[in-house]
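Researcher: I'm preparing a figure for a lab meeting and need a structural model of a single chain. I don't have an experimental structure, so a prediction will have to do for now. The sequence is pasted below. Please return the structure as C-alpha cells so I can convert it later.
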Amino acid sequence: MPRYIFVGTPGTREGGNESGADIDYEAVRLEAAAAHGIGGLLGGPDAAGMDAIKTDLMTLLPMVAEANAMAQEMGKSVKFELQIKSATAHDLGSRSREVCIKVMDVASMYVWLWSKPKFVNRK
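Model: Understood. Here is the structure written out cell by cell.
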C-alpha cells in the first residue's frame, strides 16, 4: 500500500503539528472520522476486529454527504445518516455489527434502515 505523507510547515494546518510526527493517510482518516463523531470506532485497542466496519464507514461517509447534498438540491425532505446496527439486540450471543444507512423523511418523520447495497443502488 502506498504511503502518503503531508508535507508542510507546522503552521500550515489548523493547530499545527506540535508532536513533529508525520501526518500520513491513516492519521488523516482518523482525524476525519473523529470530526464526524466516529473516531472511537476507528482507533483504540478493541478496534482490531472492526476492519470491515472501518472500511464501510470510510467508503460510505462521502456517499452519504453527497446523497444529502443531492436531496437538498432537488428539494426532497430526506436526510441520510450512517448507523451501526448490532445483532446483539436479536441474539445476545452474537457480536456481529454492520453499517446501515438511516433514511429519514423529515416531513413525515418516517425512518427506514437501508443496507449498504440498497443505498448504493438507490443513490
